[in-house]
């Protein structure tokens, strides 16, 4: 493929109400929409919505790196293959001019910018899938599933409001609900979890996300007390850099723990997976393509985890619809679809662009479009 035009458009999403996590309270998300046009007029789409707290670059750095990627892409040809796209983002090991295709990272001086890489990689994958006439999920894996289960993210603070929100989600067909914990007294979190369990009954999965907000001691108390409520799993209970604490906590917890923010650090990954014959630090992994630098790195990690008998699932980082479309295709291509993905967040925003699109959950599922590429109109 040859890239004939590149476009960068600022984007901003306002949340219906503030979303509080253990790390911060969010009222809006800002980023950039990317479009790449090939020599036959096809349009590939990508999105960058950096989130520094989760391990990405700042918005300013993201925009700078995107412009650099565009300069290197302009008028250049790229082999129509997944390998060529993956290699374009690889850091060089033996210098340039080796005849191995386009490199978007010509030197190691370019800042670490996973959100920028994610946007351009997705646009290239969208183009490649369109050129082959297949949905993006089947470009990633021929045996991709036609639909993915998603969880409902509960955003209320008070137990009564959380319970009502959970009942509404279950009535809409969701089988898994997720709530944010930590950043408040454990008594309050227990009251909130209890209210949700009483509201949804024993058959619905309850997933917690602490966003690394507990110390190891606090997490031990939380695991002991909240484990009584039949939890499906808890995402990132301790700070991401405390890998040994996560390892110890997983040995104690009566439910799986999932590493999330910890994956943003490449050097942590061997420890998380149990390198050198050790036990993995977690039993599941949260894949945020925006944080991991794209769909291909996320898929590679999921396959590595699956080879060890570990689960992985995809979530957004409060991204826009373009990012969530790519993430849904990735979720359909994962080795296992047992755990619901966290992609049903469109209703959290004041206004969706576009208002109607094929990646809105229905009955707790997203049905992947059969159209080539992302299946999302520009």
UniProtKB/TrEMBL annotation:
Domain of life from the UniProt record: Bacteria
Name its co-factor(s). a divalent metal cation
Q: Which residues form the Mandelate racemase/muconate lactonizing enzyme C-terminal domain?
A: 159-256
- Give an example GO molecular function: magnesium ion binding
Q: Name one GO biological process term.
A: peptide metabolic process
Q: Which SUPFAM superfamilies match?
A: Enolase C-terminal domain-like, Enolase N-terminal domain-like
Function, in words: Converts 2-succinyl-6-hydroxy-2,4-cyclohexadiene-1-carboxylate (SHCHC) to 2-succinylbenzoate (OSB).
Q: According to its UniProt record, which protein family does this protein belong to? A: Belongs to the mandelate racemase/muconate lactonizing enzyme family. MenC type 1 subfamily.
The name this protein goes by in its record: o-succinylbenzoate synthase
Q: Which species is listed as the source?
A: Stigmatella erecta
